[in-house]
Amino acid sequence: MTEQLDIDHLKQWIGRTDAQSDVITAQLVKGLRATLFLDIGTPKQGDAAPFTTHWCLAQPVAAMDKLGSDGHPARGGFLPPVPLPRRMWAGGEVQFIEPLRVGDEVTRSSKILDVNVKTGSTGTLCFVNVEHVITTPRGIAIRERQDIVYRDMPTGMAPPAPAPKDVPTAKHQETHYADPVLLFRYSALTFNGHRIHYDRDYVTKVEFYPGLVFHGPLQASLLVEFAARLKGGKAPATFAYRGVSPLFDGADFTVNANETADGYDVWTANDKGAPTMKATASW
Q: Which among 56, 97, 156, 252 has the fewest CB atoms less than 10 Å away?
């Protein structure tokens, strides 16, 4: 696949911009609160929304005949048409400036910052870095850098991961079950048609994962909310996160935290204790 990746062509997308708007509804907030294991309540106009509500807003909408075989919109448009078939969130950094609230009209202004290619243990990787600025009528609410990675498709099922060594010990921890309904709900809230999150035949027979893949942004959202609860409900000023290993459905997972000098180290882990996403939350 490497010879088909024209990096000079893809770099022409650097600097491309896009802007989309949406409105935060009480129904969206109820659904997201339920999915993030928060008190659902009865959200009203002006009430604070979950901190990562912006990931549910103004998502791309493509006609059915404009979707790729993986359920994503066909390549091209705002994001560069990277020919590598697997696309996932690798990580990013979020700066929380002002709360999002029910009733807000929210605008996301986006810009392609960089496109680069690396070679890893699994082959060629193409990273696309995107900047988002989230605004409401009150001004800037969130600044964000999002790192998207594209990689080639495997030719068969990978061997089971070895038992983790030196599993980190958490001072603060909560345990949840990676239910397929949880993944379906988050896909619905974010209008995410990526089949790895709900189509078991596709994810196991085409992409050769052992189960449904737990969304990266859903893990990040749980980590943000957990860290904020430990700080009395205040969002971190900066939240930097990166995926380190896939998390799959069908078992318990944990949300974990340890204090640092300026906040918390937080991470999600599978039922063996192996971290799947690591992050730092600072105030």
A: 156
pLDDT tens figures, 181-217: 999 999 999 999 999 999 999 999 999 999 999 999 9
Which residues lie below 8 Å from residue 8, measured CB to CB, with a gap of 6+?
none
pTM, 2 dp: 0.94
Q: For the chain, what percentages of helix, strand and coil (3-state, to nearest 5) are there?
A: 20, 35, 40
* pLDDT tens by residue, 145-154: 999 999 988 8
Q: Would you state the pLDDT for residue 167?
A: 87
Backbone phi, psi, residue 101, to 5°: -135, 155
Residues 6+ apart with CB under 8 A from 146: 89, 92, 129, 130, 131, 132
CA of 53: how far to CAs of 1, 49, 59, 268, in Å?
Answer: 36, 6, 12, 19
